[in-house]
Design goal:
The chain is mainly alpha-helical and about 120 residues long. The chain has 2 helices and no strands. The longest helix is centred in the N-terminal third of the chain and has 55 residues. The relative contact order is 0.03.
């Protein structure tokens, strides 16, 4: 008789634990879905902002804006030279070590293996 009561009490405790775990799973699924919906809403808002930026920065929109606001845009004077590549400009300095030696990749000349 005592074994039967012990089994009954333990089964009730196990059933209560299983119900609690099931409730926790339901709550976690609810929170997960709510967060997923918030992420989707944020993503949609970002996509709309990207679309608005793309529309506002399209070449024809920029041309129209410049035309409506009568902006005075001038190119550089003919006598001035514009450096297209800053790496090749005369002001560019090649990297050197503190000893004054030029920095290299550390590899010597490549040699092809004899085949």
């Amino acid at each position: 008789m005592i074994k039967l009561i012990l089994c009954l009490v333990s089964s009730i405790v196990i059933a209560a634990c299983v119900l609690q775990l099931r409730q926790q799973r339901i709550n976690m699924n609810y929170e997960s879905n709510r967060l997923h919906d918030q992420l989707e809403a944020g993503q949609a808002r970002l996509w709309n902002q990207q679309l608005q930026i793309a529309v506002c920065t399209a070449p024809n929109a920029i041309t129209e804006t410049v035309g409506h606001h009568d902006l005075k845009m001038a190119s550089p004077a003919l006598g001035q030279t514009v450096t297209q590549n800053w790496v090749l400009s005369s002001r560019a300095v090649s990297p050197t070590r503190p000893t004054g030696q030029p920095v290299t990749s550390g590899r010597g000349p490549r040699r092809l293996a004899n085949r």
